[in-house]
Structures
1.
Amino acid sequence: MSRDLLSISHLNLSDIENIFSRASFFLQSKTVPPILENQTVTNLFFEMSTRTRFSFELAAKKLGANVLNFAADFSSMGKGETLYDTLKVLESMGVNAVVIRHKKENIWNDLIGKTKLSLINAGTGTKDHPSQGLLDAFTLKQYFGKLENLTVAIVGDVLHSRVAHSNIECLGKLGVQVLLSGPEYFLDHKEKLPSHVRIVSMAEATESADALMLLRIQKERHETNGNFENYLESFGLDEKRLQKMKPHAVIMHPGPFNRGVEIAENLVESPRSLIFKQVQNGVYVRMAILEWALS
Ligand code: CP
């Protein structure tokens, strides 16, 4: 039996705990059994990626799977073949799972249940990036030892951020309070917020969070060109703002980060930054996701 991972909303608490427990096991194991030997995973990325694509590739290889990397521009999709037909072709070749990144949200409607492939969402539209939501929550749990009653502030371009939306959903399931802050035009006031989420000022986000998660300004998803001069001073993390954070509070960023825009150059590698820990954990969490989906 194979499973799809399309959205955090499809996971229950026991799925999440199981993924975290297996990620911890993989993290601590010196040698990993080839759980996915003879299985093939294909990465289909229709948008740019470094972390997600390579960590899914590494994760699959560490579990003994074969990995195919699909180059959209050099595939027969350039000759008009649909994504559905591409998946049918991959299924016929014996591929077991496809990891898909796409700018559109609703690509799954034409794909769910139509092949034997396990479908794994590597980031679609502005709403779903489930593996990132899971690895961020895993990183927080690893650092603080527990998640219940933590407060995480997500700051910046929330409106266009699939990471923010998956984090809001994942952290809510795990008992974490979420604060949102940023320029008003990046906060979606039209959506009814879940009870664990509040929109707050930048000062409140900075001073009351246990973790401050900064977001990249997603210019490629904006309809108009904004002016982001002085963004660092207004909504980014600089030394002055760092001094106002709780002494134990940590810095997070899903990446890609733009030094000097949403985070000061030197704070990316601050001792209080979990940014590269998030990247490192991404491999183990994605190993757990592939195992959950395929075995
Ligand atoms: N966080 C994230 O999705 O990064 P990439 O775009 O590099 O995969």
2.
Amino acid sequence: MNIILFGAPGSGKGTQAVVLNERLGLKHISLGDILRKEVKDNSPVGLKVKSYMERGELVPDDLVAAVIANHLSTEGFILDGYPRNVAQAEKLEAVLRNLNLAIDSFVYMEVAKDTVIDRLTKRIVCKTCGSVYHLRNMPPRQEGVCDSCGGELIQRKDDTPEVISNRWEVFLRESAKLIDFYDKQGKLFRVDANKDKDAVFEKIKLKLNE
Ligand code: AMP
């Protein structure tokens, strides 16, 4: 099974992808995580994408298409954060066709702007392993310390109010046509993602079973 998790920043794509990975064994491919690692490593790709990410703008399509193509799996995957526009979806189709693969479901995690602002301004992530926490809803056992690996918990640079606002605008600009693209293929599933982690997972599971 090959799934796309789509939604605004803060809709919970990463959180649900981790659960789906644990329950279904599908490879979790987070483009944001891959790009952040490139930036951290000061790689040639990292140097090219850094300024876009800091501003909350989309990295150019050709660049991300090449990155994602290197991470696809023939064993089943969850794509988190890719594609984000129709041009990326078309490039993805072409790559998958060559591999004799296809997308089965496009899960659109619908979320309100207020929920996004609350989740992202209170989100902290592990500098070492990338685990995600929320200061109120999902706090770590010890303040500032990752439960999984003991790493330092920090706020992402793009989780500031101004950049969140820009990311939300970018999402609105790109999303309608992309949703339509998968709707026409009969692959669109809408899920109310304002609820908590377990409730959202139950809904996704129900949709995928259908
Ligand atoms: P995320 O971790 O999904 O919130 O992504 C963080 C940032 O990485 C975004 O604000 C973009 O700058 C970049 N990025 C992630 N996914 C994509 C994509 N599909 N296309 C272009 N840029 C992306």
